[in-house]
Amino acid sequence: MSIPDEGSQTGDGVPTASGTSAAPETGDGHADETVPEDVVPEDVVPEDVVPPGGLPAALEAILMVTDSPVSAAQLATVLRVPEDDVDAALETLVADYGHGPRPRGFELREVAGGWRFYSAPAFSAVVDAFVLDGQTARLTQASLETLAVIAYRQPVSRGRIAAIRGVNVDSVVRTLLTRGLIEEAGHDGDGGAVLYRTSSYFLERLGLRSLDDLPPLAPYLPEIDTLDDIDGATR
Fold it and tell me: Can you name the residues that pair with 115 across neighbouring β-strands?
């Protein structure tokens, strides 16, 4: 009786003399060519993630789940389509929402360098009633005034903000920083004071594309010349 050499066993898928596994034979005498579970054939991976004609719907699906503006370039990368196609589809969606057969409760806007869905201004009272029901986490009048000074005078230091408002603004500035509405913007070249500016989150919350979309300040402040004098005196 002979004993098989070690490493030269027979059987289904057991080691051979070379140390590899012998593929089990099928009923027709050929080896089973089953692809290992950890290997995915290239032809199984889809070349396109967007079905033909489905780009607008794909953009809607992504923008519905994002909590911050998404750029057209990022959308194009994710969907594997030219950025020009994304731009065209986004503009089409904007037009469709604004000229549909019935009023929409939302709209698509380009803000802070990206795109995001917002509730329609016509229904702001409805949204406020829902979101603010039982809540008091709103900015105080002092915070709003300070934020307005920063928005229109940025970059600006605490000292200049205090001179314009006539009160100490340290705690208010800390609140605005904590909420992410403003951010540091370097230091004043003269005295080294920290300068502040509004953040991209500020644009996002106000639904603005850029600071150029801020409304003109003069019509709301008849004493704007006096404000300029105060601001200039602190420089």
Answer: 70, 110
According to the model, what pLDDT value does residue 84 have?
95
> In this structure, how many other beta carbons lie within 10 angstroms of the beta carbon of residue 193?
14
**Which residues in the chain belong to E strands, given as ranges?**
106-111, 114-119, 156-157, 182-187, 194-198
The three-class DSSP label of residue 91 is helix
Domains within the chain, CATH numbers bracketed: 55-126 (1.10.10.10), 141-233 (1.10.10.10)
- DSSP code of residue 212: G
Q: What do you get for the CA distance between the two ends of the chain, in Å?
A: 105
Question: pTM surpassing 0.85?
Answer: no
Cis peptide before 24 (omega within 30 of 0): no
pLDDT at 38: 44
Model pLDDT for residues 79-101, shown as the tens digit of each residue = 999 999 999 999 999 998 888 77
Question: What is the C-alpha separation between 123 and 98, in angstroms, rounded?
Answer: 14
Of 202, 224, 223, nearest to 214 by C-alpha is 202
Low-confidence residues of the chain, pLDDT below 50? 1-27, 30-46, 135, 222-225, 230, 233-235
Secondary structure, 3-state, 94-134: HHHHHCCCCCCCEEEEEECCEEEEEECHHHHHHHHHHHCCC
**Long-range Cβ contact pairs of 201-210 (< 8 A, separation 24 or more):** 201/112, 202/147, 202/151, 203/111, 203/112, 204/68, 204/69, 204/111, 204/112, 204/116, 205/181, 207/109, 207/111, 207/118, 208/111, 208/112, 209/109, 209/110, 209/111, 209/112
